[in-house]
Amino acid sequence: MIKDFTKDSIPLHLLSMALPLAANMFSQIAYQLVNLYFLTKIGVAATAGANAASNMVFAVTALAQVLGVGTTACVAHVLGRKDAVAANELLNQSVLFSGLCGFTVLVLLMLSIGPYLNGVAADQATIEAGTTFILWVAPGYALMLPWTAVASALRGAGVVKPIIAITMLSVVMNVILAPILIVGWLTGIALGVRGAGLATSISVAAGTAALAIYVLRPGQPLRLAIALMRPKVSHWRRILAIGIPAGGEFALTFASAAVVYYCVRDFGASAQAGFGIGSRVLQAILLPGLAIALAAGPIVGQNFGARNSARIHETIRTAVLLGTIVMMAITALVQWYTDAFLKIFSADSSSAAVATLFLQLTSWTFVAQGLVYTCTTTFQGLGNTVPALLSSATRFCVFAALVLWLSTQPHFRIEHVWYASILSVALQAIVSLSLLRIELRRLRPQGA
After folding, report:
1. What is the full DSSP assignment across 296-339?
2. Which of 27, 230, 254, 392 holds its CA 20 to 30 A away from the CA of 185?
3. What would the DSSP string read from start to end of 213-249?
4. How do residues 140-186 score in pLDDT, each as one tens digit?
5. Contact 201/215 with Cβ under 8 angstroms?
6. What is the pTM of this model?
């Protein structure tokens, strides 16, 4: 059932969306966490290789973000104007476009993984492990694009529970397949990193099929229909106009991680493995704050379509307050119980030390990251994602320049990378808030 965010309590809308969104995002991250758990039992090279290769996911995620953000905003805008027919057409056009993009992703991943790993990996064993992992997981990554298109259209309509159920089903399948394929439980045939990639691809394929069945059912307000899939470039342009800057943000995230891998490679595979473990755990830790911010996007989008600026401002204030409270609590937990977040992974002592230091220092950026998340999703809801890209570009330029310079200094230590990250994220929060204030001044008054 499509939700109307242009009326009723905004805090209740935020919470009703944030809780299932957090569960859905954790389910998605669980793919990587499950694989990581079993890969750490194989060895440092397998862990470092798969983690370095998984950084390529950010490039795929950048494209998924283009499609997802553009689709969510466009659907929310037309539903704010109470145009359900246009919303259904946008869903089908996004699925068609994402399918074409998925095939392109599959080809590009196969061609680019070799040059990428040769540039960032610490040794040949890491390169081989990363290459094998990508070759087997690439089909799953390609299927994530049409999955994202459907899920994003439903999120713009406030429909999230079916997505959660299907995602969790897919994750459960991955949890079952991972030990069987990676370490050979039951079969005695251990496929290692190849099995990690295959487990994810099979699970994503099953989830994509289930989601397709859901939106093909008669009576759905947003439903797949072949008749609506004739290419309409005007819809693709609308999705891309909003989505491309958002995708650029994720591309910068990929570039930032690549800079880290490059700068710490002289510390060895254990350092790269530790950064990879810490990064995956960090994604899970930040989910509650990110979910609140993501919940604000469709609410802002529908009220923007309805030209209700008062509710837009109220949504932002509420999201900032809730997000700050949550991020402060998470910061305290990480500072006091860092080991609790890492002990499930069988990492060697050097990798564990790097991951621990990474989490402890990075946790001081959580409140600032929460503010950045809220600003970013607000820009998405307003249909202007360029300011968010500008703030991300500012952070990346400062971070990359500082870290690359530090890495050439004789007393360079790995924690210098995390200090540079703290500085750049704080700067990004300041820039994001400043740009959001400028954007809000352009909103028409209520009823205009």
Report:
1. HHHHHHHHHHTT-HHHHHHHHHHHHHHHHHHHHHHHHHHHH-HH
2. 27
3. HHHHSTT-SS---GGG-S--HHHHHHHHHHHHHHHHH
4. 888 888 888 998 898 888 887 888 888 888 888 888 998 899 888 88
5. no
6. 0.72
Burial class (CB in 10 A: 0-12, 13-18, 19+), 15: middle
Tell me how far apart the alpha carbons of residues 338 and 355 are, in angstroms, rounded to a whole number: 9
Lowest mean pLDDT among 53-57, 132-136, 231-235: 53-57
d(CA 153, CA 118) in angstroms, rounded, equals 38
Residue pointed to by tokens 């004739």:
230
Q: Match 């030990």 to its residue by tokens.
A: 179
Per-residue pLDDT reduced to its tens digit, 297-307: 889 999 998 88
Residue 96 has pLDDT above 90, yes or no: yes
pLDDT of residue 312: 93
pLDDT, residue 202, reads 93
Which residue's structure tokens are 């993501």? Answer: 294
CA 289/CA 164 separation, integer angstroms: 18
Packing angle between helix 415-440 and helix 233-264, nearest 10 degrees?
150
Which pair of structure tokens corresponds to residue 141?
């990554």
- How many residues can be counted in the chain? 448
pLDDT confidence of residue 28? 61
Angstrom distances, CA of residue 429 to CA of 239, 326, 442: 26, 17, 21
Cα angle value 197/174/115 (rounded, 5°): 20
CA-based diameter of the chain, in Å? Answer: 68
Alpha carbon 1 to chain centroid, angstroms = 26
pLDDT beyond 50 at 347: yes
For the purposes of burial, counting CB atoms within 10 Å of the CB of 333, is it exposed (0-12), middle (13-18) or buried (19 or more)?
middle
Which tokens belong to 444?
């028409």
Amino acid at 403: V
Q: Which residue did the predictor score with more confidence, 222 or 62? A: 222
Q: Is 417 exposed, middle or buried (0-12, 13-18, 19+ CB in 10 A)?
A: buried
Distance CA 222, CA 218 (A): 10
Q: Quote the mean pLDDT of the chain.
A: 84
CB 429 within 8 A of CB 371: yes
